[in-house]
Amino acid sequence: MLSDVNLRSLFNPESIAVVGASRSGHKLGNVILSNLVSAGYRGKLMPVNPAGGEILGLAASPSVRELPHPPDLGIIVLPREQVLTAMEELADAHVSAICVITAGFRETGRDGFELEMEMADLARRRNVTLLGPNSLGLVNTAIGLNATIAQAKPSRGSIAFFSQSGALCSAILDWADGEGIGFSKFVSLGNKAGVSEADVLESLGNDPETKVIIGYLESVDDGQKFLSKARAVTEKKPVIMIKAGTTPSGARATSSHTGSMAGSVVASTAAFKQAGIIQVESLESLFDLARAFAEQPLPTGPNLTVVTNSGGPGILAADACEDADLHLARPTMETLEVLSKALPPFAAIYNPIDIIGDADADRYRVTLEAVAKDEMSNAILVLLTPTASAQIKETAQAVIDIAADCDKPVFASFMGDSRIGPGRDMLLDAGIPCYGYPEPAIRAISAMLAHHRWKNRPYPVEVCFRRDQGRASRAIKRAKRLGLSELPFNEAMEIATAYELPVPEIRLVRTSDQAVRAAKKLGYPVALKIVSPHISSRSDVDGVALNLATPRDVRDAWLDITSRAQRKRPDAYITGCLVQTMGPVKARAVVVRFTQDPQFGPLVSFSLAGPSAEVLGDISYRLAPLTLQDVQDIVREIKSFPLLRGVRGEEPVNLAAIEDILLSMSQMATDFPEIREMVLDPVLVDSEEAMVTDIRLTVG
Amino acid sequence: MLSDVNLRSLFNPESIAVVGASRSGHKLGNVILSNLVSAGYRGKLMPVNPAGGEILGLAASPSVRELPHPPDLGIIVLPREQVLTAMEELADAHVSAICVITAGFRETGRDGFELEMEMADLARRRNVTLLGPNSLGLVNTAIGLNATIAQAKPSRGSIAFFSQSGALCSAILDWADGEGIGFSKFVSLGNKAGVSEADVLESLGNDPETKVIIGYLESVDDGQKFLSKARAVTEKKPVIMIKAGTTPSGARATSSHTGSMAGSVVASTAAFKQAGIIQVESLESLFDLARAFAEQPLPTGPNLTVVTNSGGPGILAADACEDADLHLARPTMETLEVLSKALPPFAAIYNPIDIIGDADADRYRVTLEAVAKDEMSNAILVLLTPTASAQIKETAQAVIDIAADCDKPVFASFMGDSRIGPGRDMLLDAGIPCYGYPEPAIRAISAMLAHHRWKNRPYPVEVCFRRDQGRASRAIKRAKRLGLSELPFNEAMEIATAYELPVPEIRLVRTSDQAVRAAKKLGYPVALKIVSPHISSRSDVDGVALNLATPRDVRDAWLDITSRAQRKRPDAYITGCLVQTMGPVKARAVVVRFTQDPQFGPLVSFSLAGPSAEVLGDISYRLAPLTLQDVQDIVREIKSFPLLRGVRGEEPVNLAAIEDILLSMSQMATDFPEIREMVLDPVLVDSEEAMVTDIRLTVG
């Protein structure tokens, strides 16, 4: 694993060798050198080209061995076949980091993949930090380092960007250039043979030049490492990411693109959530949010004030608030008093504050001054349409003045094009995000609020549960010894008991008399379930009877179940039946499950039993180990949660009992990576207690 | 009601009087006259100003009475108090249409509202078409008519826009100007005292200059009229609308803005759907779609081909397809053969076709030529990132050339800013929509496909059901005579029977002996339900027993139910019990309901019984009368539909039986506007039959 120190030579090299530097303007070996020169890099730049001579005014060495000075960073822009040798030579020259621009490795098939493995291996052996291959390069504006093959020239700013797609980087640089957005760092990860997204994230987290981190990912290599690094970074600064390949079509496209597996979407979404990463759906949102976070303070609450000279956009903003979990702030009496004096009689002084179409800049100013002071308001959005009376530049100036004196975030949406252009430019120059429509502003404020809440959440408590790990371990070993992948019910129950899951009392009986005696001992009502080594699914033979309340019921059920099983499966040996205490009677049924995700490790899920999960997909996910906050969130996140809280005057179910089960499951998933899947279905829960009435457990 | 003819004088006047024309550049009475002059209106322009003289080179009449010529259209830009008199005078001068720019009416409170009512009344009496008040004006670029107070100058095009928000119009004109988008017509509806959204929609539908209609609405005045007019228009051309006030916050803001009621959101959404209107969520989508519809042919199927020089955006496009109900087209063998020959070995020839980062314009061209011929592909999206090798203008030209020879819609997303700018401008000039990101292109293609399907849907069949309307009517009258608003169960059942709804057979019995005899006659199993004039909710007294299979069960249940009712409600007179045949046993329970929406009339809804509807809001809506297509859609639209179709090998329920019930309910809702609400809850349905086992019916 890389330490942060290693990335220093990548981002802050004192000398650079460009291996494959070229005289020909078309070639990437020329583009990258020319970018390095023109960005004003002040360290030592050493082109390497077999012909020697001079390139772009720099003396070129004929080979790496003949470099005048050991380089900190080596950049390789050579044909694929020559890359490995060049790496070897750079390592001999005591390079600390290598960036391989060359493409044609893992993404092209088996040969490329094997070559890439050799490169990764070499980097590890020689203790060299490897970025790429198939990287567009990297940028550190603080030292004038532009080691990319992109055409655009990134300007300096406080946003750091990292991307798994190289060509996308070129679009982003061009876009940022036009929008006047600057970067602190810019990293194209390429195939991630060495430096991973987790390494870069950690490094950018420690970078004092970086206020906001944005990223584009198609795959995550080591989910647990990524999660823990990211969690530390988001304590310090916002991380906004777009994950591509989140649908089946997208995932297929991903694997044909990078040769990497897209991995489970629910697992990566859960990881992002648990790491406090803001996940967005589109590139547009990525940039909208980047600008907002870079330039405005975080709102400390959900109450937004909208000031507008046009009713329509005000309504659209109000609609968008509802979707974004923001509220329209209720103005204080003081504010209302000021506004009702200052505004014309037909203005709407309640929020959205509609200062109407004939508003000039002064009317905006007086309104904004009142709102800026209003302690009920946590954020301000100024809407302007270019009416005949609108004073666009003067209004922009009023917004700028008010924002300068105000600790709330201030956003604008000046709607239109050339007429509002001068105002928009003034706002952007002054660091006030100005969008073409109200909706992106509201999405940005909402994301910033979420980040504020994340940073101020209670300290995450990881819970370690009392359990008898040895007893569970022995049960798993017994099953493995027998070559079983799915554990027998009684062994699964044994493990559940070892982890103190609330399970019903159970007796295995072989006659109806024994069944009646067992029922008496356990207490009525009971359930009766067929047991046979040859019948794996009881429902196939209708082998379960529930809620048996009397000895008579038990005898009838015994006859029913066993004779039906013999009729339907004459070949099966019937061991007997289980007698089992019933769970809570008027209960809700929920399902708790964990599986092992190949990239992110143990993934816990929660849902109601039945169609809400199976048909409507109302299931929530978190990665284990779960914190106390996680279990509260996973339970409350499902849309069906009101059924657990109680609808129409019902009592709420015992949520703490469910949360305890989730914590135990998290513990078990962490203790036993060899458990491939464990499903508690159903867990019955009422206002008093929860009981796990069936378990399926598979080892792998 | 206005006929289309009346709107002619509004859009195509031969002469115009501007009442309130002003010499002072700041005043709206000057702005509008100057707009009329500079847009090159060739009809007769007659300013009216008490001072007479000349304004902007035109001779001004001191009053309407002194106009040299009777005007077709009168435009009023006067203080509020003078508007009514001016209208009267214009009517005397035989004006056909009046547009009132002046604001300060309904939107400002009671006085304004009453004044507006007088204006509406005057217009009706004098047979004058009234646009506004509080309108920004209107535009007809075909005759150089710009009768607005907006600052921007709309250019000619094929998009018509109408809006309930005036200030929004000014933003839109400015935006369109910058984007090079032209309009055929442009109408600011204002307070809609005379001309309504339905009138304008009909007129734009008949306008040969208009290819696409876009609109912004906050309220719909006569929902049924709007629905039928809109349905006729969408047969001819696409109508794209944004409805503001679709959330509680937005609705509150709406009513304070225009003084109009936002109305039920589900009803307006249903109306838009049934009228074939494309409803969008944001202004941005409104314009994105307007451009797409105006410039490209409709796709005839869901299969999209994506060509890209960068894997990342290709994956994002694939992700977006899934959300938008589009598929990635599977290339034909011919296409694959061409591509595998023409493209470098590392290119991805399956869709998204990734021609990789070093692609030049020729590689785009050869790929697009193959795709344009591919009969499995219904639409093409070209993505470009400005890599070092990208030939941006040449690639734009290739796209333009291919699109010219291709009957499929072609879209582009050139990503970046100044570097891709020249290419983007070429594409836009050539009528190829080019977006900054892949997602808006995909949303546009998806909306166009929906419109294609709408235009090619089966001819809508309205079904008239056999029923005994008189019998139902008598039952309603009896209830009304008794002053009941909720009908007794037996009367509700009577009405259901008159409309041939499948209801269980029922007997009212007074003793347990009678109950057993009734059960024998009806056939076991039966249900038993308490009947008492003093008990309205049976569940309060646990007054229902289901699935009684034997005489013994019936007697036990009788004792249970009646004694419990007496114990819980000692004051209640117990009439007896209903004995009722059970519905299908292993059935799904669904709910069918209709209510009367104040703006849209009878609104039918459908859902499963239970939490999917109550907690998760999985309910679908349509306005009555329902067509055959509507009932099929309303049933299939709920997310829980798989449960009706059958999951895990279950048999599907009898959907036709549910559809028949929905058609009967639609008929009843149309026949009896005095039924305020009718709820069939539950309707039990299995693979054989459906049965309505409980009804609640309220008259108003």
From TrEMBL, chains A, B:
Where does the signal peptide begin and end?
Answer: none
UniProt keyword terms in alphabetical order? ATP-binding, Ligase, Nucleotide-binding
Where on the tree of life does the source sit, at the highest rank?
Bacteria
Keyword flag Nucleotide-binding: yes
Q: Which Pfam families match?
A: ATP-grasp_5, CoA_binding_2, Ligase_CoA_2, Succ_CoA_lig
Tell me where in this chain the ATP-grasp domain is found: 493-529
**PROSITE patterns according to UniProt:** ATP_GRASP
The protein depicted here goes by the name Acyl-CoA synthetase
- Species, as recorded: Pseudodesulfovibrio portus
